[in-house]
Write a structure and sequence with these properties.
By secondary structure, the chain is mainly α. 48% of the residues lie in helices and 0% in strands. The longest helix has 16 residues. The protein is globular and about 40 Å long. The termini are far apart.
């Protein structure tokens, strides 16, 4: 396997991750307070570490020509 799963380039892997986050964004329950509703669920427990990584660590690993745009990465919600 390539170093980024099925992707040969890091930028393609990040683009796919952004695409998946936008799919998740379309399923978020606005009633909250958790991502998936009023009670914590396995989905929340699974998403939380990824969201922390994306918000805190991912910007530190961007290339010189890449800009971090939190709204573009995480979606509107």
């Amino acid at each position: 396997m390539p170093p980024f799963g099925k992707f040969t380039m890091r930028s393609a892997a990040i683009a796919d991750l952004k695409k998946q986050l936008h799919i998740i964004d379309s399923h978020i329950d606005e009633a909250g307070p958790y991502l998936c509703g009023s009670e914590v669920s396995l989905a929340d427990a699974t998403l939380f570490p990824t969201m922390v990584f994306m918000q805190v660590m991912m910007p530190k690993f961007l290339g010189k020509d890449e800009k971090w745009d939190q709204a573009a990465v995480f979606g509107a919600r």
